[in-house]
Amino acid sequence: MDSKAAADRVLTGLDDIRSELEAFHRDLHAHPELSHQEHRTAARVAEHLEGWGYEVCAGVGGTGVVGVLAGGDEPAVLLRADMDALPVREDTGLPYASTVTATDASGREVPVAHACGHDLHVTCLLGAARLMAAGRGPWQGALVVLFQPAEETGDGADRMLADGLTDRVPRPGVAFAQHVLPYPAGWVGTRAGSFLSAADNLTVTLHGRGAHGSAPQAAIDPVVMAAMTVVRLQTIVSRELAATRPAVVTVGSIQSGSSANVIPDSAELLINVRTYDEDSRQRVLDDVRRIVRAECDASGATREPDFEPGGRFPPTVNDEAVTAEVAAAFTARFGQRAVTAEPQSASEDFSRLPDAFGVPYTYWGIGCVDPRTYRTAQRRGTIAQDVPVNHSGRFAPVVQPTLDTGVSALVTAALTRLRPPADGKT
Ligand code: ZN
Ligand code: ZN
Question: How far apart are CA 403 and CA 127, in angstroms?
Answer without folding.
Answer: 9
